[in-house]
Every structure is written in C-alpha cells, then in structure tokens.
Design brief:
With about 400 residues, the protein is α/β, with parallel strands linked by helices. Strands 3-4-2-1-5-6 form a six-stranded parallel beta sheet. Strands 9-8-7-13-14-15 form a six-stranded parallel beta sheet, sandwiched between helices. It is globular. The chain starts with 14 loop residues before the first strand and ends in a 17-residue tail after the last helix. The mean pLDDT is about 95. The structure holds adenosine monophosphate. The site of adenosine monophosphate has 17 residues, from strand 12.
Length: about 400
C-alpha cells in the first residue's frame, strides 16, 4: 500500500495542519513518562519548517469528556515540544474557539501553533462534520502523522480529509514508516509468529484476537484479559478482572485456536492481591486457587517460565499489552521479565501500544526491540488486514 507522501506536496510558505498523536503516558505528577510519540513527530515538523511553513499541530490526550479539563491540557506536550524543537510553541486556549482562530489568523511563516486537546470538542470523536470543516479551514495542507489514532474515524483524522484534495493531503513520515513496517510484517512474517497479548480488557482486543488467530502460530494471553479466558475454562478467579459477557467469545477463541492448530497459552499462576493497590498484601497462587475476594494483578513465576518456553523458538514476536498492573512495582515483575526475554531473543520483535511501549522504555529496553509502534489498537487493526479510516483517504489510487 503506497501512501501520498508529504514529500510529494508543494509546501513552500503554506499553512500546514499536522494531526499528531501526542497522547503520551504521564505519571501521577503530570510528568511525561514516555515521549516517543512526541519525538516521532519531529521529522515531519522539521520538514515543514524547512519549507517555511506555518504549522498547526493538533492532538488528543486521554479521554476528556468533550469539555476543557486542566488534567488533559496539552501544556506538558507544549513544553516538551519546545525542548525538542528549540523554538516557541504557541498553545491555544481552545480548539476551534476565539483564541485558536485569532492565533491561527495571526500566524506567520515558521510559527508553530499547538491547538488544545482535540477531545475538548465533543464533535471530535463523533466525526462531526462542522468541526472537521472548521479545523480544515485553518490550513492549506493536511498531514496525518498520527498513526496511533488512524484506526478511528474522528473529525481530525477522517472527516477533515474530505476538505483537502490529493494535492493538499498526505501522510507524514511517521505514518508512512508504520504502514510500511506492518505491511511487510503481514505479508511475510518469519515463522513461528507469536503474538503476546495482555492489558486490561478483552473487549478492546476481541476482534484483534480473532483476526490474529489465522496469522499466528502461537498466542500467549496474559494481563487482566487472561481472567475472562480462565473463567471460561471453569476456574474461580476471585475478584480478578473479568468480562462476564465475553466468556462465550473467550470459549470461541479457544476453540478456534484448537481447530487451527494455534498453540494458546494462558497463565498457570498469578500474583494475587487483596486490594487493587501498591501496598496490598500479595501472594503467589496457581490460577486454580485464587482465594475468594483476591485478584490476580500479575502473572506468577511459573507462568513467566511457561511463556519463555513458548517464546523460545519465535522468529517474529508481536507484543501488545502488559502482563500485569506494571504501573505498580509489586505487579510489574511479570511484564519486566517477559520484556527482558523478548528483548534478548534474535527474533523480529514488535512492541505495540502506549502502555507496552511505556513499560519497555521504563526498563531501558526500547533500543533492544526491532520496532516500537506508536499505535497499539491501530497496529492490531492493520494486522487484521483492515485499511484504517485515517489512512484510506491517503492511499495512492493506482496501488488500490
Ligand atoms: P490496555 O489499555 O487494555 O492495553 O491495558 C493496559 C492496562 O492493563 C494497564 O494499565 C495495566 O495496569 C492493566 N492491567 C494489566 N494486567 C492487569 C490485571 N491483571 N488486572 C487489572 N489490570 C491489569
């Protein structure tokens, strides 16, 4: 799949709207813990600056409920951009309101404006047409460099593209790199191809799990989502995270894995805690013996050994979602051990998802992985063979 590239556009002295993905993880003090997504946008921004463009950067951060909230302001992103680009970054007080309009109208060559969090506007996630048009009216050129959100048909990702013709919309360098990498991975993965899936919810990854099954040789399931599968197998998992309405789906996935000959691995033991807190009493129990009222918050040592065995012959390893509540030290051990093991293999190792990238970088293993994707959900949907709604308008027609 070939995309219209930013390099094909005439950008000189233009006003360029760049949809970035600055949805970065932060700690409890509001510090950015992994700025990969910001750093990854710098080449596209610098390229535009070299062409004397005036630049409007736009992104979402977290899930504010369609209104301003200090907690979700992009001001930490503004500061990091300032450090990285060594130039003034003008943050607007709103997204498309008076302040943003005034600042955009007053823009000069090489100014960089950062619009406030797109999700302060209710219309963003509904792909609202008026919002899309108002954003589009700000610029001459539209660049999508937000791989992490390209699987969402949102106003600034999909709706907006309708207001730019093929000579004025294109993919930035980051988006191109991600699409190229996953395109190659899906076409000819070196086998055995193993996916390691974790994180909190089956619901968010259900379709991806089903669609990955025909492509992979082994599937390893850890994290909170594993408990829905364990419950489907008839275990009492105490107060662990379970999506009861998805137990049938978990059954179906396990059955399908069997029929396809895909080896599916689930935790055999867990680090169980009495409460969901960093100072909770914990103990290691088998998956069969989680005490009443306790919850599994990490994979246990036997599971780490099992998963390592399963990963040993992997030639391509795709990892999406932590094995436990890695944000709390007590429940980070399983994820850390698996991260070290994956990093040490000679396989092609691909890490996807903000949380997984964050945990890998916290323990200094980011340089050891073959590819760290800036998009978790987006990369899974690409691997399902879908054309993402934010990418479809940027595909070169002759290559369709
Ligand atoms: P996701 O966004 O679905 O990839 O989920 C990431 C989140 O899953 C992280 O914030 C983890 O703390 C959380 N998580 C992982 N394992 C568990 C678990 N066993 N119970 C509850 N939450 C978990």
């Amino acid at each position: 799949m070939q995309l219209h590239s930013i390099k094909d556009l005439d950008l000189t002295h233009k006003k360029v709207f760049i949809r970035c993905d600055f949805n970065v993880p932060m700690d409890e003090y509001g510090n950015i813990t992994d700025d990969r997504r910001i750093r990854s946008a710098i080449s596209t921004i610098n390229y535009c600056l070299d062409q004397d463009c005036a630049i409007i950067l736009a992104s979402h951060l977290g899930r504010p409920k369609g209104e301003f909230s200090e907690k979700y302001s992009l001001s930490p992103v503004q500061r990091r951009l300032h450090q990285l680009l060594q130039r003034e970054i003008i943050l607007t007080k709103d997204v498309v309101g008076e302040d943003a309009q005034a600042k955009v109208n007053a823009m000069k060559c090489c100014d960089v404006i950062l619009l406030e969090n797109l999700r302060f506007e209710k219309g963003e996630t509904n792909n609202d047409e008026t919002l899309a048009k108002t954003l589009a009216d700000m610029a001459d050129i539209y660049i999508n460099d937000a791989f992490g959100v390209s699987h969402r048909a949102h106003s600034s990702v999909e709706g907006i593209t309708k207001y730019f013709d093929e000579k004025s919309r294109a993919a930035g360098f980051l988006l191109q790199k991600e699409i190229k990498f996953f395109g190659a991975l899906i076409k000819r993965p070196v086998r055995p191809f193993i996916s390691v899936v974790g994180g909190s919810k089956v619901s968010g990854k259900l379709e991806a799990l089903s669609n990955l099954l025909p492509r992979v040789d082994k599937m390893i399931i850890g994290g909170g989502m594993a408990f829905t599968f364990l419950k489907a197998q008839g275990y009492d998992v105490g107060n662990s995270l379970v999506e009861d309405d998805l137990i049938d789906d978990a059954h179906r996935i396990m059955q399908e894995a069997k029929e396809r000959g895909v080896k599916l691995y689930l935790p055999v033991d867990v680090v169980a805690a009495q409460t969901f807190s960093a100072d909770s009493v914990t103990k290691i129990t088998t998956a069969q013996e989680i005490p009443q009222g306790w919850m599994g918050l990490d994979i246990g040592p036997a599971t780490v050994r099992l998963f390592k065995e399963a990963l040993a012959d992997g030639q391509t390893i795709l990892w999406n979602g932590p094995m436990g509540v890695y944000e709390m030290e007590k429940f980070a051990r399983g994820s850390n051990k698996i991260a070290h093991y994956i990093a040490d293999t000679y396989a092609t190792t691909v890490v996807g998802g903000g949380d997984t990238a964050d945990l890998v970088q916290r323990i200094g293993l980011d340089e050891e992985m073959t590819f760290i994707s800036t998009g978790g959900g987006a990369s899974l949907e690409l691997l399902e063979g879908k054309i993402l709604p934010g990418v479809a308008p940027l595909v070169c027609p002759e290559q369709d």
